Amino acid sequence: MSKSVIIFDLDGTLIDSALDLATAVNRMLTKLDLPVVAIDTVKSWVGNGSYNLVTRALTHHGAPSDDKAVHDAHEIFLAEYSQIANDTTAYAGVHDGLATLQANGFRLALCTNKPYRFLAGILAAMGWSDSFDIVLGGDSLPTKKPDPAPLQHICTTLGVAIDDAIMVGDSKNDIQAGKACGMTTLALRYGYNYGEPIDSSEPDAAFDDFDGLVSWIVATYR
After folding, report:
1. Which residues does the record give as Mg(2+) binding sites (predicted)?
2. Is 208 annotated as contributing to ligand binding?
3. 164 assigned binding-site residue
4. CATH 3.40.50.1000, domain 5-16+88-221, yes or no
5. Is residue 87 marked as binding?
6. Which residues are catalytic?
7. pLDDT band at 184 (very low <50, low <70, confident <90, very high)
8. Which of 29, 152, 159, 197 makes a 20 to 30 Å CA pair with 43?
């Protein structure tokens, strides 16, 4: 079966943003008079968007986590994160891998739970402003991954069937979203998945590095 569209997650899949996320979380915690946490702790909170990241940070410290408390803390986090996204880097092989996939005729899409407001700046910094046919953030639609709606929206917008697309991610949210709409799912083992092995989510295939992922896609679907 051929494929024409590859939908990528962002954090933990294409970019390592853990240091910047941890810095923003810890600045938020400091402003709330709460103890800072280690970067590996923050990594275990990443995956369902920044609002849930903040909720987990407050819950971790036993701080109030009602709607108002999370909203106010989230606004602090967003303000801090917008000031510091300087240490985010692409994972090994991603720059060349995306170019290889495009050279082989695949269309690329981006579906992340990160707030949309941050995406243009990150993509520009990575040199990927023109790499994706469509870009969705976690607040672009009423629901986000693991709901399948964003993936369905991408396929509808690009005019392709679900069977013609692949979801690539590092988190169970990515795999669950793909499975929920019947899409082929591929996983990368190096990202953020709440401290759980991504293989336990039973993707169609899993890879240790981006080069291996790209080679497999080209060999399998071209």
Report:
1. 9, 11, 170
2. no
3. no
4. yes
5. no
6. 9
7. very high
8. 152
